[in-house]
What does this fold into?
Amino acid sequence: MTQQTAAQAMVAATHRLRAAGVVDPARDARILLAHAAQIEASRVTLIAPEQLADEVADRYEQLIALRSIRVPVSHLIGERQFYGRRFKVSGEVLDPRPETEILIEAALAMPFSRVLDLGTGSGCILVTLLAEQQKARGLGVDLSEAACLQTSANALLHNVTERADVRQSNWFSAVDGRYDLIVSNPPYISLAEMEELSDEVRRYEPEMALTDGADGLEAYRLIARDVLQYLAQDGRVMVEIGPTQGADVSQLFTEAGLVDVRVIPDLDGRDRVVYGKRAD
It folds into this structure.
């Protein structure tokens, strides 16, 4: 292998990723070089004039080859930023996404002491809420054993393990007690929409976390049917939704007996979260 400087390697990698259809090839080339060199991404410009050591060049080549077949960057480096924290991720859980931070902001708008996260996945919602609300306790449930392990690892990483209970559960099946906040980012993509997803999502993220295999509303029906049994007095429920689902999910919540039902938009003005409250 011809020895290259870090800058030359990044330029070549950027061209290669662009040809593979990667959306932001220069950013990904920089992040992956930092990972290969085991430095912070902000320090890449400092090593740009230096020749890459053979072992760094080899690692970088492997990372770029995998990114070229659209393996997500988060899977390659093993983590993803969410609400100012780094979360460990893998192909077993849905990647934390910036739009889910809208759910976090809505949840933190009022205090809570007990929170339930349905379909916890990486644990990014549960762990963030417990880290931000330091007297709260929470339960995260997921049908996937791998997701439960991932949540537990992230709870440990962010020092909330003593306040976080994690259980394998099919929605409410292993849940007990009442909660003043119930949150969920359930699988809401319809089967018809799956083909429209990017290769990164469709090929490398767990299908059960993306779609119900039907119209994308099944999880909301299940949540709406049972949620009142688990909400404390004045308890709130908030769910992330797809941008076309606001009216349907609001109707499900209203028909279930929740009050003050409303849709919260994301920063682009698209419907993102449906809120409801227990009437007492």
